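Case study.
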Amino acid sequence: MAFVTQVVSYRGLIGHLAQRELKSKYKRSVLGWLWSLLNPAATLLIYTVVFGTVMRIEPPLAGNGELHSFALYLFSALIVWNFFNAVIIGSMGALMGVGALLKKVYFPPECPAIANALTVVIQSGIECLILVAVMIAFGNVSWTFLIFPYLLLLLTLFTLGIGLVLSIYNIYLRDVNYLVTIGMSLLFYGTPIVYPYSLVEANAPELIATLVRFNPLTQFVGASQQIFYLLEAPSPARLLGLTAISVATFLGGWAIFVAKSVDVSEEL
Amino acid sequence: MSLTVSNRRPSSDGRPAIVVDNVSKRFRLYREKPSSVKERFTKLRGAVYEEYWALKDVSIEVPRGTTYGLVGSNGSGKSTMLRVMAGIHRPTSGSVNVDGRVSALLELGAGFHPELTGRENIYLNAAILGLTRKTIAAKMDDIIEFAGLGAFVDSPVKVYSSGMFVRLGFSVAVHVEPEVLLVDEVIAVGDEDFQRRCFDHLYKLRNSGSTIVLVTHDLGLVQGMCDNAAWLDKGVLKKVGRAPDVVHAYLDQVNEVETKRIEEKSKPIEVTDAETVEAEDIADVRSSHDLVEIEDVEFLDAEGRPTLTITPLEKLTMRVHWRAKVPQPEPLFSFAVENEAGVYVANPGMQPKPTWRDIPAGPGYVDYRMDELVLGPGQYTFTVAAHDHAGTTILHKRERFITLRVQPGNTLVLGLIDMMGTWVPPVSMAKDDDQFEVAPGPFDMAQEQ
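After joint prediction, the assembly is written out as follows.
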């Protein structure tokens, strides 16, 4: 617990690091905020064309009983994936980026990863607002939207736990970065994002279906699609399960990070 | 040192600012280390490394509000000690307790992010030290001004010159009002003017009650500025105590080692066949008459023992051993002194006299006696010559024949030589109603004789 209070006492630094990242992201380019949305928008467009239009993957009917859009079904899932991806990749880069600094001054080495997660939360918040606006435009609105902040909190804990571990191993082992890239693309297709989970259940062998089902991201994505698209509240079992796994991953990841990072200044 | 500081803030309580308790620090020097996941799976052998103890069971206490010096030769663990104090390295065993906000200035520049501008780095460092943006914004101008960055303040620090880097580092470190300031041999990098301003600032910090730990090779600085000091040797604490005592103990050992080393290897190169010598540097100039030969030169300390190292203001005698080949009028001798930089320091010579004695063939010696050696610390090379009785012809000259090393001693001598003068107390010419104020001068001018 001492580590928690220490990080809290360095909240100024975390805030500063986050602010810096946001500034470089949004201030220095001509279109600012719009620019940062270009990438997710492009992804959304490509996947919609490839999987929705060309491959004709059928989205379920939305919660309002009228909307039937692959793009919006995908958007509800991509919000989760984009967040996960940005935090994992960003954590590794963030720790590497402060390497020179850690050799000269002391601060908790988890600060950069936490700051990075904060900036991603803000980015996701913007994406989320856009999604909500679009859903309102299509008349697909419900109180379930209000569950999303809690889901995002769990997702932050879960992802940060993994991100911290990867970021510290990335310092000691050069090719972690490379392996993570491979792992991320595996995970992307191992999570029902560009296809509905029902397709896996119907077509995939039992083993693969089980793997996909027990992938925590499947649960996060599923919950997000329920909240934004299907307009149903995730079952208490699903939320409890996600809460448990997120907290456990976060605490476990942080513990590993703390244990591995004590001598990080000698390694950088 | 004659500067005393009277208006120190009394320490709030008896607790020391830094307590280093039985600290050991082990580094692993890896000769082979699997540094990727792939290697971990494919290599049969694990990491191959040697252990190296940078610190062994070191205990130090730094009282609050004092200045503390860490001395020792290279590789003695001083810098590691400082890093451990700063919390950058974790001690392998033992504990370090630092009470108060620490600002560290290690090697070149503080913790700077090369891609960020000077201004952003100032904010970043301040944030690391726990200062709010508002506090630092208020000091921003002072910091930039002190560092003398000018227009560079909004350029990434990677384009800075090393001097700018150090100046900015120092400026940030001292302006954040650290309760504990750790400084590692950085001030030496700046130019004269900057160094002076650094010291002014360190004194200011010291007077306002900050605790300062200084790692430096400048023993004069340790003696002049530090209250206490510790001497580390190969990771072992050799001595702690009042700064002058520690410095002396350290110097004694250094001088001893140096003397041994120099005397082992510095038997001069003797050249007999002048034609084979191309390097003019060590050539002997010999007149065709070959009347007198300088055979050897030695230095004798106060007790008359031969030595090659000495400290300033000690008694020293230079003895030139010569041999007259034939009976002849008494020769004259002279020598030239040159320092490491090639600066021609002095050239004392005997003056021709209207009358002279004749001497027989055979050996003899001549002494040049110095009751107090005026030379400051450094390395001096002596060229010795024998002249005829009239001083018109060089009979024999040994170019750069012997080297004397002057070690920093108990008395601080800055610069090339000690002027050997005495300070007379200041006399005020003002009338009674004008108060005569003694302004504190830069410490390096305050030298006691």
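Observations recorded in class. Chain B has eight helices and 21 strands. Chain B has a mean pLDDT of 80. We will return to this complex in the next lecture.
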